[in-house]
Design brief:
This protein has 325 residues and is an alpha/beta fold. It has 2 domains: 201 residues, Rossmann fold; 94 residues, UDP-galactose 4-epimerase, domain 1, CATH 3.90.25.10. Helices cover 42% and strands 16% of the residues. It has 11 helices and 13 strands. Helix 1 packs across helix 8, helix 7 packs parallel to helix 9 and helix 7 packs across helix 11. The structure holds NADPH dihydro-nicotinamide-adenine-dinucleotide phosphate (NDP) and guanosine-5'-diphosphate-rhamnose. The site of guanosine-5'-diphosphate-rhamnose has 22 residues, from helix 7.
């Protein structure tokens, strides 16, 4: 019999790629669809899988809907990807971020414990939990020091996942994922903001691009590679936590140079620094050590930063040209 999976956050970047991966593997895929006044299904449409997934109405802040959905989906694997995931917004909406990103995970774990304790659980943890820790490459043994309400909420969810594993014997794993991007990345995140703006500048629709701290360093990978690691974690006999990263970091400045040069432009002519875009507390540098994932899961990143940014620029070029017709 084919396996069944439940994805919260299925309308987000990772949810869409993970849904496609699981459908390709023959899973029946259920997804939690939160009520919104706008259409959130564009990523599922982009991948051509909107009609292949079973969408269930619910919200991770609502325990009753999570219990109902976990029960109804009869999922063998539950992936909790739902979050208020934009770090910047977490300072203006810290309580909401705590409710969705932190308590939301606890609700899922409770639903699992109550109605489906044999299901396997994946929690979307993040390198933002390391925050201010300045070790050269962060691993599963690196201590945490989150620097935003988002990072704090994620750390709560991370420890709850470990706690439910140890307290109730749930097969619950956390992937500590470093930044990963794609043509499906939300426009508020810096990579998409840059690739979209570079294309608009090239086509004459925009003149300048305002950014905040372009000296921040991130370890950027491709979301399509990273969702494979999520699945691999749930195929292990024993649940555990894994850092998922490329192992290479670059500055926002480097990323701008790559994006603009894909279009034969010099980023220094267009990028302006806007102090309003600096964060109240910055994570200056993140670079992961993915050796445990390589050794135990056989996983490694296969996409270079240049390749990733070129893919995003190309997709934005096609999208903006199509829109302008
Ligand atoms: P996105 O922001 O693209 O997607 C977030 C998803 O969460 C959307 O489907 C959104 O639904 C859903 N969601 C938000 N609030 C609720 C709610 N109250 N109830 C149910 N669903 C809700 O994030 P990504 O795909 O980039 O990331 C996936 C997960 O991985 C997130 O938890 C993120 O924090 C984490 N992560 C991401 C990394 C990255 O670099 N991308 C790195 C490390 C961790 P809607 O579309 O309706 O708003
Ligand atoms: P991040 O991603 O905060 O790392 O969180 P984001 O792309 O927002 O920022 C990366 C770095 O770029 C700097 N920056 C800017 N960022 C944005 N968004 N807009 C700007 O104009 C800008 N200028 C400079 C930021 O200060 C930061 O240093 C992402 C999310 O997906 C989280 O959910 C996830 O947990 C982490 O990655 C790992």
């Amino acid at each position: 019999m084919s396996k069944s999976a439940l994805i919260t956050g299925i309308t987000g970047q990772d949810g869409a790629y993970l849904a496609r991966l699981l459908l390709d593997k023959g899973y029946t895929v259920h997804g939690v669809l939160a009520r919104r006044s706008t259409d959130t299904l564009w990523r599922l449409r982009y991948l051509g899988i909107k009609d292949d997934v079973r969408l269930l109405d619910g919200d991770v802040t609502d325990l009753s809907s999570m219990i109902r959905i976990v029960d109804r989906s009869k999922a063998d694997e539950i992936y909790n990807l739902a979050a208020q995931s934009f770090v910047g917004t977490s300072w203006s909406q810290p309580i909401l971020t705590g409710m969705v990103t932190g308590i939301g995970a606890a609700n899922l774990l409770e639903a699992l414990r109550i109605v489906s304790p044999e299901a396997r659980f994946y929690q979307a943890s993040t390198s933002e939990m390391f925050g201010k820790i300045q070790e050269p490459a962060q691993s599963e043994r690196t201590p945490f020091y989150p620097r935003s309400p988002y990072g704090v909420a994620k750390l709560y969810a991370h420890w709850m996942t470990i706690n439910y594993r140890e307290s109730f014997g749930l097969h619950a794993s956390s992937g500590i994922l470093f930044n990963h991007e794609s043509p499906l990345r939300g426009i508020e995140f810096v990579t998409r903001k840059v690739t979209d703006a570079a294309v608009r500048i090239k086509l004459g629709y925009q003149k300048k691009l305002k950014l905040g701290n372009i000296d921040a360093k991130r370890d950027w990978g491709y979301a399509g590679d990273f969702v494979q690691a999520m699945w691999l974690m749930l195929q292990q006999d024993v649940a555990d936590d894994y850092v998922i990263a490329t192992g290479k970091a670059a500055t926002v400045r480097d990323m701008c140079r790559i994006a603009f040069s894909c279009l034969d432009l010099d980023y220094t002519q267009y990028v302006e620094i806007d102090p309003e875009l600096f964060r109240p507390a910055e994570v200056e540098e993140l670079c992961g050590n993915p050796s445990k994932a390589f050794e135990r899961l056989g996983w490694s990143s296969t996409t270079s930063l240049d390749g990733l940014i070129a893919m995003m620029v190309d997709a934005d070029l096609r999208r903006i040209e199509r829109e302008s017709l």
